[in-house]
Design brief:
The protein is built from 13 helices and no strands. It is mainly alpha-helical. The chain folds into 2 domains: about 180 residues, Type IV / VI secretion system, DotU (Serine Threonine Protein Phosphatase 5, Tetratricopeptide repeat, Alpha Horseshoe); about 40 residues.
Length: about 250
């Protein structure tokens, strides 16, 4: 019995968000198909023909950009998000033995799109830049958080696992604190019941709320991620659990 090519398998499993009727979709939700492709590539034994895989990924990247424009996402946010996704996809292919890896070594996707091959460093440089304005860049930061939770390592691949985990934890807390500020802004009286001496408790309760908000964001893409039954889903959920515990 002939094996179905990876590209055909994944095409049947994506949401293929080719038309956006609800322009209120979050940036993370618009990344659904590309995140699924990254997860499925880690599971696959054979990624198939390099040109077919390249065509598939480019199709969904173009679709992502199109949907971002329809949803009113600004160009800078689209570019930063695209960089994170491409970084994750490139690293995933390069971690998968086979002809696609051999092809990608000499021609990673980032080289075609961004003209360089420095995602291992650049991903974290962009992340640090985004963290300067976490409130304004919150949705983009959520995507970077997802990419890290789904396995992107970059410059920390060979060593530095502990440092990378600290980055993930810090990023999660920063996203949470941004959500806290938002909740505080729309519900000032509800959160002012805590006095300054109870600052620690004031912090803990909103973190729970913020973590719940993040879980709701993931719920928007859960229908797809649920099909990828592997350790990366556990990583995601464990990350949220840690944020709640904090």
């Amino acid at each position: 019995m002939a094996t179905v090519p990876f590209t055909e398998t994944i095409s049947a499993q994506t949401l293929n968000l080719s038309s956006i009727s609800d322009t209120s979709r979050s940036l993370a939700a618009l990344c659904t198909d590309l995140l699924l492709i990254a997860i499925k590539m880690r599971e696959a034994e054979d990624l198939g023909e390099p040109s077919a895989l390249r065509k598939l990924i480019n199709y969904y990247l173009e679709l992502f950009i199109k949907n971002c424009k329809l949803s009113g996402v600004d160009d800078a946010a689209v570019l930063d998000t695209q960089y994170a996704l491409v970084s994750l996809l490139d690293e995933t292919v390069l971690s998968s033995p086979g002809v696609c890896r051999n092809y990608w070594i000499s021609r990673p996707l980032q080289l075609d799109i961004f003209g360089n091959n420095i995602a291992g460093e650049e991903f974290y440089r962009r992340l640090n830049h985004l963290l300067v304005e976490p409130a304004e860049k919150n949705e983009v930061l959520e995507v970077y958080y997802l990419c890290l939770c789904l396995g992107f390592e970059g410059k920390y691949k060979i060593s530095g696992t502990a440092e990378r985990l600290k980055i993930i934890e810090h990023l999660g807390l920063k996203i949470c604190s941004t959500q806290v500020d938002f909740v505080n802004g729309i519900s000032p009286h509800g959160l002012r019941t805590f006095d300054i001496q109870s600052k620690r408790h004031f912090f803990l309760f909103p973190i729970w709320i913020a973590a719940s908000v993040l879980i709701m964001i993931i719920a928007a893409i859960w229908i797809v991620l649920d099909r990828a039954h592997n350790e990366h889903i556990d990583l995601l959920m464990n990350a949220f659990e840690k944020m709640v515990e904090l």
